[in-house]
Amino acid sequence: MMEIICMNQQHTYNLYEIFVKKSSQYPDDVFIVYNDEMVKYKDALMNVSKIAYTLRKAGVANSSNVIMQIGNTPYFIYCFFAILQCNAIPVLVNPLARQYELKYYHDITTPACIITQSFIADRLTQYGLVSRGCKMIVIDDSSNFTSINAILNGDGYDMDYVPEEKNGAAIIFTAAMDGNALGAVLTHTGIYHSAESVAWMLPHYASMMIAALPLFHAFGLTTSLIIPLLSKTEICLVDRFSPKRLLKLLLNRKVRYFVGVPAMYSIMKPLFERDIDFSGISLWVSGGDYLSRELQEWYAEKGIIIRQGYGLTEASPIVSWNMPHIENKICSIGKPMPYNEVMIVDEEGVMQSPLNNGEIIVKGINVINHYYNNDQMTQNYIKNGWLYTGDVGYYDNDGYLFITGRKKDMILKNGYNVYPKEVERILQYHPCIESVRVTGHVTFTGDSTIEMLVAEIVCKGVKKISVDEIKAWCIDNISLYKIPDTIIIR
Fold this sequence. Notes:
The chain has 490 residues and is α/β, with parallel strands linked by helices.
């Protein structure tokens, strides 16, 4: 068993140190399950040290940023902890993001390295969208770039680690209300407290976690990586969500709880219409989007109580939840977590009494201190430690929170935040578009939401491009979930 060398080590909430500690305590226990293959803690630790070795050779050092564009595979976990071992900061990016989105993230964070797919690395370098000093590592095989497989099959590894309290644990881009996404700098302490508080509420006899949520998302990172790490629960990585595959996992007696988003529960409905015994699962959790009354009541009739929560990337991310030890209220997002305060305020910042609507604001150890290199937006959204969420809601007389609308220009699609101004900005890269206006349309029915994105486009010159041509361009140049639902050519 190799030994990580830690200089001046003291107790912290550092996520890398927690990983090393677990690996030292349980070297031969299973850490990850992926496609029926099991990875022990000691093997994961070695793989992390091999990637850290390559990153340092590529110039990754203390306070460097490294963009990670990886799905739910062991590579994500290895790279995440390897970057932290280098005292660098992982910049977590959706694998669906395309070159113009990557260029923006690159220009803001100036990363020392980008870890992505080979075809995206090719485009970024071919079109000159990244700086010459930015190294590329790819998650598939390539003759042009160093691959993760080649690194893991090599002999080089780096065991050095010097704790650095000031560095963030992750940068995740969000809040693109004006078209420019902000890099929320999540801290080790914030993620730790969010994860630790939930971990003790979960069934302690569970020995496997189904990681179906995307790990690059704050919700997935906390619930599907850090929580099972803290509780030493096997992480069963699901890279592609499918009801058939999920059924097999849910019937595994090691699994005692499931965390998903409303879209997953909607897709899973046919499983519960069959005569299948899911009594082994004692806790069902939903977050990331609004869970409709209709869907929640449908499951309740089947004996499945879904406990809904609420969070934001900037809050690491869990703000409130219908926790297992309290009554579950349908349509409520629960009560505030013990590590944060939640207040409802009017336009002047005056706290509202129960049943009165206002903006939801959050304060606590889980809330970020700043957006990356953007003091102005930090001051706009974080005031005296209070995060102004842009969400509108109220408390009922029992202290439960309810969401009723949004102040911010944003829609939710399958649990992902979509900002019309950001889509508008990216569409303007199209050479045939003179101008474009993208609007989000959200209808709160009380029990659910209907959310759509509409793009109105004015073409250059006389010849108009077709809707199909715009959609084809979008598929190549923008995340699929950000593509407008309706496109109008003027």
